[in-house]
Amino acid sequence: MINKIITFFWTYYYKIFWFKTLNIHPNARIRGFIRINLFKKYGNLLINLKDRTSIFPNVIIQGSGTLEIGENSFIGSFTVLGINERITIGKNVMISQTVSIRDTDHVFKNCNTPMIQQGITTSPITIEEDVWIGYGAVITKGVNIGKGAIVGANAVVTKDVPPYAIVGGVPAKIIKYRI
């Protein structure tokens, strides 16, 4: 009972105080404190949570792009979502704890200029429906993870993952297919 009250409180807190940033479906739930960092320099952060979406405590959402999370998906605690362009998460997606998903990278080509002054590059990330992303995985910019895929714990995904593939390792490689 106490968990339902806490979830109710946090969900409505974010609906009221972050109404310009968050579009929360009536059945979506924020289950504890999440941190939202806006990077106004690049634009406005927009977050769209669909029906039965759950975000667990201590998730960090930062940037100035658009985040869309599909129906019946959840994001585990201590996950970081860095969005300066777009991250799209499909229906029925499970994202475990401490996952890092970032559509941005720093520019570092000019050795005579500090990297912090060289700007960023972005490329959207798409995670299709029925995907499971394991504990501690890292998803880098421009990656598309196909329907029904599984990303193993601590994998670093730098290239597209085909539908129903199981990937793992650093960098992530196909281990086998589910079908």
From TrEMBL:
Query: Can you name this protein?
Result: Acyltransferase
Q: Which CDD domains match?
A: LbH_MAT_like (cd04647)
Q: Name one GO molecular function term.
A: acyltransferase activity
Q: Which Pfam families match?
A: Hexapep_2
**What keywords tag this UniProt record?**
Acyltransferase, Repeat, Transferase
Q: Which PROSITE patterns match?
A: HEXAPEP_TRANSFERASES
Q: Does the keyword Cell cycle apply?
A: no
**Its domain of life?**
Bacteria
Species the sequence originates in: Lacihabitans lacunae
